[in-house]
Predict the structure.
Amino acid sequence: MSKQLDASAQGVYLITVTPFTDSGALDLASTDRMVDFCLEKGVTGLTVLGIMGEATKLTMEESRTYVKQVLARVNGKIPVVVGASAPGFAPMKELTDSVMDLGASGVMVAPPSTLRTDDQIVSYFQMVGETLGPQVPWCLQDHPVSTGVQMTANVILRILKNSPTCVMLKHEDWPGLAKLTAYRAASDKGEVKRFSILCGNGGGLFLPEELTRGADGAMTGFAYPEMMVDVVAAHARGDRERAHDLFDAYLPLAKYEQQAGVGLAVRKFLFQERGVIASDFVRKPGPKLSAQDVADIRFLVKRQEKRLRELG
């Protein structure tokens, strides 16, 4: 049983990929290797069934099988958050109850693309809290690029005031530094409870700046999770220069992995190259890498390795 999610959460919650075999079936052996790899690299938590986890391409049964495998392998060592966004409240509740029974630490919910006004957004998340129930801590995902829903800082603060079980914000708006400053100012003044803020902007493309603005860490994916772990650790001990130097070494590859449409294929290819997963298969609709893409990636990896050696 993993520790329940709470407002003190910090560090790096890695968004996992979902490993498949070359024929597109769930690959549970690679899932175990991936969990071991993440633990070895020092992540603080895992987030499964996110957008980059191809959640919408899994059946309900596959989703449960995958979550069960991850939780069994994690074996309570670190918290596991499960993406529970759904078109309706009944499937959201069904998946949530199922994964919480299996030992998940909490769930993450994003707004559906149908929401238009501030009041609609606030009302929707009031219903999310009621649907999940008083025992389920949850994370609010603010990712307008994927949802099409714009939530201002004020709207998010209203949601947090209304929802005692919302303990974390996955902050993915871009640009979002001013929003981060507003959240921390509001909680510092006691206008809203202190809540955990983990950043997910493009594989952590603004991570050092977001940490400086008061983020508690990262919740995103990247084929080199040790980058986020080391950057967050350097920042926590007050070595801002080291945090930026490390970040800069990985930035070209992180940027390449953030290309719209092809990013997941890049991440899975790199995980396969690193021996973490057996296949880089992406379910349809999904991108395939060209020979030129692979050449680009290998060139960037070599440069990254050279820079890391120089930094020691």
Notes: The CA atoms of residues 186 and 192 lie 6 Å apart. Residues 291-311 form the longest helix (21 residues). The longest strand covers residues 166-171.
